[in-house]
Amino acid sequence: MSERVLVKQLKSLPEGPVRVSGWVETVRDQKKVQFVILRDETGAVQLVNPATREATDDADAAASVALALTEEISALASGTFLTVTGELKHDERVKLGGVEIKIATLEVAAAANPETPIAADSGLDKRMDWRFLDLRQARNNLIFRVQTTFEHALRTYWVERDYIEIHSPKLMASPSESNAELFSLDYFEDKTAYLAQSPQFFKQMAQSAGFGKIFEIAPAFRADPSFTSRHATEFTSVDAEISWIDSHEDVAHMQEELLQTAFQAVKDTHGAEIEELFGIEVQVPAVPFPRIPLAEARQIVADRGYEIPRTDGDLDPEGERQISAYVQETYGHQFVFITDYHPEIRAFYHMRDAETGLTKSYDLLFKGVEITTGAQREHRVDVLIEQAKEKGLDPAHLDFYLDFFRYGAPPHGGFGMGLARVLMLLLGEASIREVTYLFRGPTRLAP
Amino acid sequence: MSERVLVKQLKSLPEGPVRVSGWVETVRDQKKVQFVILRDETGAVQLVNPATREATDDADAAASVALALTEEISALASGTFLTVTGELKHDERVKLGGVEIKIATLEVAAAANPETPIAADSGLDKRMDWRFLDLRQARNNLIFRVQTTFEHALRTYWVERDYIEIHSPKLMASPSESNAELFSLDYFEDKTAYLAQSPQFFKQMAQSAGFGKIFEIAPAFRADPSFTSRHATEFTSVDAEISWIDSHEDVAHMQEELLQTAFQAVKDTHGAEIEELFGIEVQVPAVPFPRIPLAEARQIVADRGYEIPRTDGDLDPEGERQISAYVQETYGHQFVFITDYHPEIRAFYHMRDAETGLTKSYDLLFKGVEITTGAQREHRVDVLIEQAKEKGLDPAHLDFYLDFFRYGAPPHGGFGMGLARVLMLLLGEASIREVTYLFRGPTRLAP
């Protein structure tokens, strides 16, 4: 028998015998004819079988085979995985791709339990309980193809520019960001290990190690009790860090070029499908992205009539939506860098501008949601210790990190970006749960 | 001033003013002339300065600047990161790359503590204490460039063949492989979470989800108390899983093609440097790799005079070296698939051959060390339950996993490969500690 062909290949094949494998999406069991919609990882195709409903008196072998096939199709449960051989026919009246396969043989790989626990319109929590079934939907399959293309474009951009890929440890002897939202576990020799909240310290270590430019795409962990659409206890963090920068502006410049490249790849590869299944036209962002200092952004938001309730000088989620709306209206751009944050609302390792005292850092907003914090880091160990103390941190606890700067270090900076947030916004989804393979949150640890 | 240029670019630049940034490897402070070896992420270059040792009576401004520069160079500690401008000269007498820069200005970014805690010949444990300094060595830098090229070649192979990249969760409600060597932690709502020992269950889930072909490169965690050169408590696992296979042979075929592609990329990009710094000629493996059934491999090892002490029918590390030596002598090949393992020494989810009762699985050895286990998985849920029971596992604890096969599943299989083991063997290193960015073991949780 011929090799398996993918459903997406059928359209360009000549009529004749073919073999396809996939799962049963639906069965339409009419009296005279049976239709099966078979889906594989590339699409769906209609299979057809003229029904043989009863063995006639002078039943020959062929007729009894036909009867058995008809009964087997009638009994097929949705979700059953099977391989079908048959005759491919081109027929433009067939809405599903203009092709049809007349079934010759049918082999079940694993029959599905006929009680399917979820439907396409089940609630999100129920769908997450049965995520492996939920992922069979064409739009969910597309999400992860988009993710694959997006990530590969990021990595290719970096690799072509001589970045080194690192795998920093997720088990640490001390917290990587703060003492809050920290998972800890018993390690060997009565030690306590902490799960990395970010690769921050270790991507900076690569700068002291003379790696120059590095990237990492890896899990990060936050014991975050919140239930928003943007938070998870485990998430995929996209990180880069580069040496010999003049300011955070060099980081922003790299990131905007990187995102432009990756969005272009997504549009080229999946643009039409995204439009069909998500109703979204992928916009490849023009560079440079608009940049607005935080104080100016707050003024713009205030002028639009929204009063930010936060007293710490930062934007709140509604403020982020407002400033993004302004940028969209004014510049027709979906991205905006907000810059010049006060040290009080930034991590101790953000470098400060000697003149203004503000940090050399940015947040990047995409369609009204923060997807990245980027900054130049403080590499002068005496200044770094002062800034840590100012935040109430004990330099003794940071000693292994401070060592990275005691034996020479270049000026450097980088960013961290939440992969799921980008995907959520890119596809117009309401929650990162929809674009995460298996979401982890305070009440969600399985499957 | 001009843009920063990388050391590797100097050779092809015309003589004239340049700017380089990097760190001080050595200073040779002679009476009449000073030499600084500056290294950056691409190589090392000699900087030169005619020493001005004392201000003359009729000292003019230029002379006092020259004196200050001389004194600054004398005081430079190894490891100090700095930017130098000067005149590039081509001079074939200069052993280091045939170029030299006559220093005009020198700007220190961060001065190193003059007491460097390690030397190139320090012991491994000491070097790991100061890994960020250890990584400044050219050969260590090369390790991670090789890793970057290797991984990107793997991913590109997969992406070009329509594989989907997944990020499976590392926090789980139940063990992913066995109850041994398991890290656990307190989660929300008094739950216990476990760190994934492998992505096994979740990469199989992608098959039930109809993803077809998937890959993942991500951390995995084992509370493994052993101190061998091949084990770690956290390691980077390279995983792939594919649907609609006929047997483990389809998996092996993909893996050998994949490795051939990736080794070719490493040889093309870094072959000369690997030969120079590691004394290793990268061999691109021919396909197909040799395949030897386990029973036959044991016989070959016995015929070579080595008696395997294990009584479970498997190979031991010396047996693996012996069979690899045999394959090298007989076929001139560094790789060998050992096949047909007895179910007793394989995981419960390995499919068994209906005729022989042996598992449809393999181990892949590279230069005498196991780097991979691959297999076709059992996708028939009733058989899977029986096999789990036979291993003493309670199917109730596996229920979320067994569900993946109750609603239809394709025949499928895959492999897991330890990234550090491949790199160690490829570069002829003695331990995975040498090729891991920051190693984690029973007594090693920092830096």
Automatic annotation (TrEMBL), chains A, B:
SUPFAM superfamilies assigned to the protein according to its UniProt record, in alphabetical order: Class II aaRS and biotin synthetases, Nucleic acid-binding proteins
Pfam families reported in the protein's UniProt record: tRNA-synt_2, tRNA_anti-codon
Domain Aminoacyl-transfer RNA synthetases class-II family profile: 144-447
Reaction catalysed by this enzyme: tRNA(Asp) + L-aspartate + ATP = L-aspartyl-tRNA(Asp) + AMP + diphosphate
Spans annotated as Aspartate: 200-203
Enzyme category, top tier: ligase
Domain of life: Bacteria
Keyword set includes Aminoacyl-tRNA synthetase: yes
Binding site for ATP: 370, 418-421
GO MF term list: aspartate-tRNA ligase activity; ATP binding; RNA binding
Protein residues bound to L-aspartate: 177, 222, 373, 377
Function: Catalyzes the attachment of L-aspartate to tRNA(Asp) in a two-step reaction: L-aspartate is first activated by ATP to form Asp-AMP and then transferred to the acceptor end of tRNA(Asp).
NCBIfam families, sorted: PRK05159.1
Family (UniProt): Belongs to the class-II aminoacyl-tRNA synthetase family. Type 2 subfamily.
Stated name of the protein: Aspartate--tRNA ligase
Gene name of the encoded protein: asnS
